């Protein structure tokens, strides 16, 4: 009895699980059907049967058929690609052909439409060979064909998949997108100028129309001439303005201001005077956005440079190490701020350009798939540039050198005149400019004569005869040194004999100077005065050489007398 009961329980459990699986399968199948298409009772009954040329099986073929039919001016047939559910049967034929014609004009003049980018499968399943898209393998019942802007608003043209009863589902322009056509046509439709163009010039020739091949060069010549006029006007303004920061700023913004004016005029002409095909319009749009962003960024940087120049002249003045450390540190920080502003500006302009031309949307997640490859390429190709940029920021923060510091780099006395992204500009003592890559500069040892203080010990050496009076020379040295304005801390003036040979002695004199370059001049001046003092008053102090003429041994003293020869010694100044 118990055994039969257990078998009965097991049987009921199996039946319950089977029934639940069937119910789940039916529910899942129902949800899948509703996600694959829109179920409707009828489609475009006022248009009649769709022609054979109207292939509406996939999104790609539906748009391709629409463009082919409108290119042949068969607008009634092309209207079968629109879902005219918002119109009555009597209005569908008349309004449908007109809306198809307008949509064809919008596609031709609006955003550049690439039919190959549309899904080629009936279910419009999301495909991604890289596997980066989280929605890969998902079927869709509507897809975006194009996204356009009119009157500051964005309008999407979308395809929807519709099924009537047991018929095969078809892809049509959705009713909401059909309602956008008049608004978009007002924005992207033919301009007033095209009404006066003969019909034969409106035929297509390649990717453009015949009249566009003639109008675009004339259009560009007019825009360039307008930009040249703006450039000349700004050049004259820079001469009319009083000399100063305003004239300097005006002289530096001629080209970017002309580009901004050209961009604005071009956009105005495209909006109100002439309307080109989508290929030309998209190209102009990308160029205008790029040029406008670059010009605005350049003017901003010129403004920052002008402000920095004004601060430099007012606060620091001439860039050298005679200015206080705080002022030179401030100027170094200003240069670091300039590089930071450049970095932010370039990054912002790049993001703005990419966002405006919708590269992220067109490329999609494939950018992420190729990010690692791009990172490797940028790392290899831009290693030197990136290294210089990082080194320049390191110099700005650590400040081993500052603007105006005097350094000895590879044996040359140089003032640090500017620290830029990739190079350092050094001004030599003879007013030459050395342009040194930042990484090269930081990898070489250099001597910063201004890192703590501009004061510097200088010394000069004089070789004199052993009979020279050092006290007299020391007093004269102190006297001459005190006459020099750049010699400071007179209690540190020193003069001593530092070396000696059999015929001469070396006298070294030390003096403290206010800065290295002035110290060099003071050293030269004191040396000249000491040499002139010795020459005029004690010429016997010059070192002399003793030359023995006799070949006899003078130490023995008898050989010369026996031989009748005379020993003689000649003393002459050393050359």
Automatic annotation (TrEMBL):
Keywords: Membrane, Signal, Transmembrane, Transmembrane helix
PANTHER family listed in its UniProt record: INNER MEMBRANE PROTEIN (PTHR30566:SF25), YNAI-RELATED MECHANOSENSITIVE ION CHANNEL (PTHR30566)
Protein name: Mechanosensitive ion channel family protein
Family annotation (InterPro entries): LSM_dom_sf, MscS_channel_2nd
Domain Mechanosensitive ion channel MscS: start-end pairs: 385-450
Pfam families, A to Z: MS_channel_2nd (PF00924)
TM helices/strands, residue ranges: 210-228, 249-270, 282-304, 335-355, 367-390
Signal peptide residue numbers: 1-24
Domain of life: Bacteria
Transmembrane helix as UniProt keyword: yes
